[in-house]
Design goal:
- The chain is an alpha+beta fold.
- The protein is 33% helix and 22% strand.
- It is built from twelve helices and 16 strands.
- It has helices spanning 26-41, 65-72, 90-103, 142-148, 157-167, 172-191, 225-229, 261-266, 291-303, 320-329, 343-346, 353-367, and strands spanning 5-11, 15-16, 51-54, 81-84, 109-117, 123-124, 140-141, 149-150, 155-156, 202-206, 209-213, 250-259, 273-282, 312-315, 372-379, 383-391.
- Strands 1, 2, 3, 4, 5, 12, 13, 14, 15 and 16 form a ten-stranded mixed β-sheet that branches.
- β10 and β11 form a beta hairpin.
- α1 crosses α2 (65-72) and α5 (157-167) packs across α10 (320-329).
- The longest helix is centred in the middle third of the chain and has 20 residues, at 172-191.
- The mean pLDDT is 97.
């Protein structure tokens, strides 16, 4: 079976909520990522068969944000584009869709990616359409309504993680220790420059000058078990999950150039990796954190490999309890997981997360001289996505 190859994969740094990237719309961040990926790959833009971009918080972003981002990247108007909203799995799903089209010989090369601006997600006046005659009216926070709250489970995403913590006997101390380790690994990776190859600079105007920013704004070097232990549980009385053991809101863009392997070889490209397998799965919404347990076996079946064959794993850290629950339900070597930290420390830019962790995985494999890797994420509403790659260069 034909295995599509990844010619380039990159991302912005992770901007914190209200932070350095908050002046950009989601489609700006997506456009930056598309442009950077195209430049890195050196693929002629007229060769691109399609652009597919993920976006989670779409209120006020504009119709078909993938097309808007493509325009902002300066791509030819003749290239089609569409948007995927599969929440946390959006951009990994875009990579699967481009891979599908390549395997079906529909296109030779395409752009997959995602974009998110939590900072610019608006408030909504759902009762204002026909006018307010008098009295109080409802204001909805789209961050909460379209993200934190699961309409299928009827509870906050964090409350679903509390269910997993209870079912798998995951203690507060385990979660805090995991969260601390995520920050420690992320800061260590930053100091060693391990994110330099996967990130690209964004030009940001600050007062009277323009600076090139390519860093991580969210990791906290000063966190400790003592500080984490003082944080209150936020999803349940006498619960165990805190803001410190939850993924951080994040503004970011990410993108990958994916191509037919024969076309890439014929045109002299040197791929970073090949896509060996991928899959999606689903389960009850109130157990959404176990989505990878349903998706990973399908990706492994397609690749002809096992979880034990994976040299490195990028498992999106929605919550520390969620990662630990997946580990208990589907055991793997935790030393191989999120070796440069995860979303608790680096942020979870919903629609951009999939190709963000894919880029991180590719370069982590490269720097450690490893071959096989898995990228996977749970999805609000009770789903999961997973992709297996093999490093080529």
């Amino acid at each position: 079976m034909k295995r599509p190859v990844i010619l380039a994969a990159c991302r912005t740094g992770g901007g914190k909520f209200g932070g350095v990237l908050s002046g950009f719309e989601a489609t700006d961040l997506g456009g930056f990522a598309i442009r950077a990926a195209l430049d890195r790959s050196a693929v002629p833009e007229e060769e691109i068969g399609e652009v597919i971009m993920g976006n989670g918080w779409q209120a006020g972003v504009g119709a078909n944000p993938a097309r808007i981002a493509m325009f902002k990247a300066g791509m030819p108007r003749s290239v089609p584009a569409f948007t995927v909203n599969k929440r946390c799995g959006s951009s990994l799903r875009t990579a699967m869709l481009i891979a599908d089209r390549i395997r079906l010989n529909d296109i030779r090369v395409g752009v997959a990616g995602g974009m998110e601006s939590a900072s610019r997600t608006p408030y909504i006046l759902p009762e204002a359409r026909w006018g307010h005659r008098m009295g109080d009216r409802k204001v909805l926070d789209a961050l909460h309504h379209d993200g934190f709250m699961c309409p299928l489970a009827g509870m906050l995403m964090g409350a679903t993680a509390e269910i997993l913590a209870e079912e798998y006997s995951i203690t507060r101390e385990e979660q805090d220790s995991y969260a601390l380790e995520s920050h420690r690994k992320a800061f260590s990776a930053m100091k060693k420059g391990l994110f330099a190859d996967e990130t690209f600079p964004v030009s940001i105007r600050q007062k009277k000058e323009v600076v090139e920013w390519a860093s991580e704004e969210i990791p906290r070097e000063d966190t400790s078990l003592e500080k984490l232990a003082r944080l209150p549980a936020i999803f349940k009385d006498k619960g165990t999950i805190t803001a410190g053991s939850s993924s951080a809101l994040c503004d970011a863009g990410s993108a990958a150039i994916i191509a037919d392997p024969d076309w890439a070889k014929a045109n002299g490209f040197n791929p970073l990796a090949e896509i060996a397998g991928y899959g999606s799965g689903a389960l009850e919404a109130d157990h959404m954190g176990l989505g990878p347990v349903k998706a990973v076996p399908r990706a492994m079946e397609m690749s002809g490999m096992t979880l034990g064959d994976m040299d490195l794993i990028e498992l999106n850290e929605a919550f520390a309890a969620q990662v630990l629950a997946v580990h208990r339900a589907m055991p793997f070597d935790m030393e191989r997981c999120n070796v440069n930290g995860g979303a608790i420390a680096l942020g979870h830019p919903i629609g951009a997360t999939g190709t963000k962790i894919l880029a991180t995985l590719i370069y982590a494999l490269r720097k450690r001289d490893k071959e096989f890797g898995l990228a996977t994420a749970c999805i609000g509403g009770g789903q999961g996505v997973a992709m297996v790659i093999r490093r080529l260069s």
